[in-house]
């Protein structure tokens, strides 16, 4: 419950600050430190409640994944790989701020980082299902997604064109092939002031 989460974070925050945020422990930084702690508390309470609502049973943090991609291997670290009670997976990427930018990204179906993680899990799991994905914005404690059914309590950011993650991925692969063909022919685009597109 919320009290347990707050007790846990109050115990862990001093350790986190000693290990990763010593600058906030310096003289004159008390207000900044307190603001960080309050933001962290509120974000964690909200995140835990959203994960419970999504029926998440297990969270794997910073999970490295790699899978074949066209002419090579594609890899990365998924911030949070979520496993639900029914065995299904969901993906969550943590961002400190810029909720407005991420909302626009989802509405324009440009969330390539999330799509990459979904591609990796789809390839590794050898299934045809693209796992649902979302951003969690820490400073505003907001969960942003195109799939509000998979993430109850989230802010729905539906694609304006009706496109989905698989559509984004197809566009990305087409762009990758186009650029690869150019590079294989020795063509490298240089964008500098005074040039005209050809």
TL;DR of this structure?
With 198 residues, this protein is of the alpha/beta class. It contains five helices and six strands, in the order ααβββααβββα.
Main β-sheet, spatial strand arrangement: 1-2-3-4-5-6
| Cα radius of gyration in angstroms | 20 Å
In terms of structural class, how would the helical and strand content be classed? Answer: alpha/beta
Strand content: 15-25%
Quote the average pLDDT: 94
Number of helices: 5
Q: Please trace the helix and strand order, writing H or E for each element.
A: HHEEEHHEEEH
Report the helical percentage. Answer: 40-55%
Unreliable sequence segments? none
End-to-end distance: 60 Å
What's the total count of β strands? 6
The gross shape turns out to be globular
Largest sheet: 6 strands, mixed
Describe the structure.
It is built from five helices and six strands; from the N terminus they run ααβββααβββα. It has helices spanning 2-20, 30-53, 99-107, 112-125, 165-184; strands at 56-69, 72-84, 89-95, 133-137, 142-145, 155-156. A six-stranded mixed sheet has the order 1-2-3-4-5-6, with helices on both faces. β4 and β5 form a beta hairpin. The longest helix is centred in the N-terminal third of the chain and has 24 residues, at 30-53. It starts with a helix and ends in a 14-residue tail after the last helix. 21% of the residues are buried.
Name its key features.
6 strands, 23% strand, globular, alpha/beta
């Amino acid at each position: 419950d919320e009290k347990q989460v707050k007790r846990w974070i109050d115990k862990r925050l001093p350790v986190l600050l000693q290990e990763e945020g010593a600058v906030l422990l310096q003289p004159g930084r008390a207000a900044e430190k307190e603001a960080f702690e309050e933001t962290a508390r509120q974000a964690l309470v909200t995140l835990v409640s959203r994960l419970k609502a999504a029926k998440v049973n297990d969270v794997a943090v910073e999970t490295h994944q790699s899978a074949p991609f066209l002419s090579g291997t594609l890899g990365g670290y998924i911030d949070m790989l979520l496993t639900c009670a029914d065995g299904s997976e969901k993906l969550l990427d943590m961002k400190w701020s810029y909720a407005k930018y991420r909302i626009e990204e989802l509405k324009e179906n440009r969330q390539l980082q999330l799509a990459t993680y979904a591609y990796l899990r789809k390839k590794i799991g050898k299934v045809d299902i693209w796992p649902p994905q979302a951003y969690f914005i820490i400073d505003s404690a907001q969960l942003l997604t195109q799939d509000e059914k998979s993430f109850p309590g989230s802010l729905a950011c539906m694609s304006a064109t009706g496109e989905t993650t698989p559509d984004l991925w197809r566009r990305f692969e087409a762009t990758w092939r186009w650029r690869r063909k150019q590079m294989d022919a020795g063509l490298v685009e240089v964008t500098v002031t005074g040039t005209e597109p050809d």
